[in-house]
Amino acid sequence: MVKPPSKEPTIALINIVFLMLIFFMIAGTLALPLDGDVELIEAEDIIGREPPDAMVIHADGVLRLRGEIVANAADYLATLSVAERAIVRIVPDRKLPARSLVSIANELRTAGAGRVMVVSERALP
């Protein structure tokens, strides 16, 4: 007696692969491709600097705005318009004590700043 050849379960395998494909299409986000005419900038030679409207706080607590010393947080806010006071950016030195940073942020809030944003360096993986 000759045994008939066993069938390969290829249909089941195709169904599983198809379902996985559908799952990843739904679960993942599909982004539109960039236009072919767009050339992205190279960021190798860019020097990092603070935003122009941000107040820089040095490790010794000296406040600077656009390279000039600012006496206190209220003087900094006086240079901003009412709309710019909604979000105030500060760039603290890495060695500035946290207590000083919190104190300056509180001064900004009591002087009329809406939100105080701390600008920091983004760590690369």
TrEMBL record:
Keywords: Cell membrane, Membrane, Plasmid, Protein transport, Transmembrane, Transmembrane helix, Transport. Signal peptide: none annotated. It is a single-pass membrane protein; Single-pass type II membrane protein. Pfam families: ExbD. The chain crosses the membrane at residues 12-34. GO terms for molecular function: transmembrane transporter activity. The keyword Glycosyltransferase does not apply. It is found in: Cell membrane. InterPro entries: ExbD. GO terms for biological process: protein transport. GO terms for cellular component: plasma membrane. Belongs to the ExbD/TolR family. This is Biopolymer transport protein. The lineage of its organism: Bacteria, Pseudomonadati, Pseudomonadota, Alphaproteobacteria, Rhodobacterales.
